[in-house]
Amino acid sequence: MVRKLPENRITVALPKGRLFEQTISIFNKCGILSEEISPESRKLVLQTENFNFLLVRAKDVPAYVEYGVADIGVAGDDVLLETDPDVYRPVDLKIGACTIMVAGLPEDRERYFSNPTSLKISTKYPRIAKEFFGQKGIKVQIIELYGSIELAPLVGLSDFIVDIVETGRTLRENGLIVIEEIRPSTAKLIVNRASYKTKSSKIMDIIEKLENYLETR
Ligand code: PRP
């Protein structure tokens, strides 16, 4: 059981899933991390010489960093916009590039652009969706889902979805199309505000190594 993590190490909240491997790869390439780390085990805390890694759901990364359990973390703009944490965001890691989109069935496209007064939207991103449609003056009923969002318009749970699109494969294979782009998203390094001061030399070293690597890439 790990209750208290060794404090001489930097604790990193790492997103499981699509960003995991890209994050480890960039940490290896810029010389921050010398060990190989794999998410295959069920372990949620992995320790290396210099780091404690916490393997958490992408959407939970900001909470671990904001509340200081982790000193740093990696989170996409999608998650940061949705959770709006009080953290520093010093480096755009330029990984995990995707676009936050409104998507739906081709036959519903016309309806979307004919000034609807209200829409039913399924999404993992209720806050982003509310703000986007709020600015357009469209009233939305948000149905919050936690995965397989593309299913919702296929079975009539909602009119459209707000979700991230990376390769477009999930939309294509389910006969859906992009209706409107909301904004692009890439992953950011995020840093706890207190750690930024108390562990400044270690954190500055990480930031510099990442920046140097990203400049020469
Ligand atoms: C994300 C997103 C889309 C899909 C887009 O889901 O919610 O469903 O990836 O990727 P693509 O454009 O490359 O097909 P994720 O894989 O995180 O799984 P989830 O359904 O469990 O949320």
What is the CATH class of the largest domain? Alpha Beta
Rg over alpha carbons = 19 Å
Q: What is the structural class?
A: alpha/beta
Low-confidence stretches: none
- Compute the separation of the termini in Å: 40 Å
> How many helical stretches?
9
Element pattern in H and E: EHEEHEHEEHEHEHEHEEHH
As for the number of domains, it is: 2
> What level of helicity do the residues show?
25-40%
Which helices and strands appear, and what pairs or packs with what?
Layout (H helix, E strand, L loop, with lengths): L9 E6 L4 H10 L15 E3 L3 E6 L4 H6 L5 E5 H7 L4 E5 L5 E7 L4 H4 L5 E6 L2 H11 L2 E6 L6 H4 L5 E6 L3 H5 L3 E9 L1 E5 L1 H6 L1 H17 L1
Parallel strand pairs: 1-3, 1-4, 7-8, 7-9
Antiparallel strand pairs: 2-3, 4-11, 5-11, 6-9, 6-10
The site of 1-O-pyrophosphono-5-O-phosphono-alpha-D-ribofuranose has 14 residues, from strand 9 and helix 7.
Structural description of this entry:
This protein has helices at 20-29, 61-66, 77-83, 109-112, 126-136, 151-154, 169-173, 193-198, 200-216; strands at residues 10-15, 45-47, 51-56, 72-76, 88-92, 98-104, 118-123, 139-144, 160-165, 177-185, 187-191. With 217 residues, it is an alpha/beta fold. It has nine helices and eleven strands. Helices cover 32% and strands 29% of the residues. The chain has two domains: 10-96 and 186-216, 3-Layer(aba) Sandwich (D-Maltodextrin-Binding Protein, domain 2); 98-184, D-Maltodextrin-Binding Protein, domain 2, CATH 3.40.190. The protein has a six-stranded mixed β-sheet with strand order 2-3-1-4-11-5. Strands 8-7-9-6-10 form a five-stranded mixed β-sheet. The site of 1-O-pyrophosphono-5-O-phosphono-alpha-D-ribofuranose has 14 residues, from strand 9 and helix 7.
